[in-house]
Amino acid sequence: MSDARISEGGHIPVMLAEVLHHLAPRDGARYVDATFGGGGYTRAILNAARCTVFAIDRDPDAIARGAELARAHPGRLHLIQGRFGDLCAIMNAQGVSALDGIVFDLGLSSFQIDQAERGFSFRAEGPLDMRMERDGRTAAELVTTLSEGELASILRDFGEERHARRVARAIVAARAQAPITTTQELAAIVRRAVPKSADGIDPATRSFQALRIAVNQELAEIEAGIDAAIRLLAPRGRIVAVAFHSLEDRIVKHALAAAAGRLPRPGRHDPAGLLAPARPVLRLLTRQPATPTDAECRTNPRARSAKLRAAEKLPAFPMPEAA
Questions:
Q1: 3-class state of residue 91 by DSSP
Q2: Fewer beta carbons below 10 Å: N end or C end of the chain?
Q3: Is beta strand 30-33 parallel, antiparallel or unpaired with respect to 52-57?
Q4: Which of 26-35, 263-272, 282-291 bottoms out in mean pLDDT, i.e. has the lowest?
Q5: Is residue 56 a part of any domain in this protein?
Q6: Does the CA dihedral 97-24-224-82 come out positive or negative?
């Protein structure tokens, strides 16, 4: 596989061809890779055009991994540790007020999943950590300190776990006997509480997702990041977002649809219906989310749940949207 397809360490960027198609990198333009991770999108953008990329990641390990790529593209790649929810402040610090394209690869990177010591995966023994920035409260602290009701809310809201109350009760009972400090300990507790499903998905999957999202405040970050990206785009600039579960995709879908004027109008009895609709600032490039090909899913199973949405910033006086 070519260098444009595989980033450092064998990480395979998801839906890379589709990302490049919608982002359409061009010479002299400025782009943000808001979730640098393994650097796959950044590397491909830099190879596609003589452009500049600002690569952001909240994980210090990801920024450290990018040093070699930055040396290979002197002056064109700027590595920045930070949260994409702070995108406006980050770009202001770089002296940049408008961007030609922004790409988000939401969720975990392959590196984070594969490093047992980071505590993201239930498939390997490791400390129950899950912090992307290595700062703040760990997942172990959450399962140790939160009440049964608080745990159930996290599991239901962030993991869409149907058995949230049962899992929360099992966690509280287990921690009364001994602290829950490792991934395997928590996974075993969840597996005993949740019936096996016919689809073969590990019963611990949703609970681990929920705790990871809670630890890193991921959904609030996505909302803030997408909003900031829309504001920072220059006319004709493009935003591309790849999501991996329904909670992420729902936020992206709603934000892009709202900015494109595609949300349903309020009912005639709703006072909001008396207000003039806001002028659209985006043109949707994907009315329905793009999904990976069967061939990509066979090559990279982690791509299976991916959904890509893209939009373009309208000029001050927009042309009619294509049918």
A1: helix
A2: C
A3: parallel
A4: 263-272
A5: yes
A6: negative
Domain membership flag for residue 323 = no
Which phi-psi region, left, alpha or beta, contains residue 175 (left: φ > 0; alpha: ψ -120 to 50)?
alpha
At residue 128, the 3 state secondary structure works out as coil
Q: Does position 315 have pLDDT exceeding 70, yes or no?
A: yes
Of 97, 113, 153, nearest to 9 (Cα)? 113
Report the CATH number that the domain containing residue 237 is assigned in CATH. Answer: 3.40.50.150
CA distance 115 to 139: 16
**Is residue 166 located within the same domain as residue 225?**
no
237, two tokens: 């600039």
The CA radius of gyration of the chain, in Å to the nearest whole number, is: 21
Residues recorded for the chain? 323
pTM over 0.85: yes
Range of the domain at 260: 8-105+218-313
The answer to whether 8 and 38 have CB atoms below 8 angstroms apart is: yes
Query: Does residue 1 sit within a domain?
Result: no
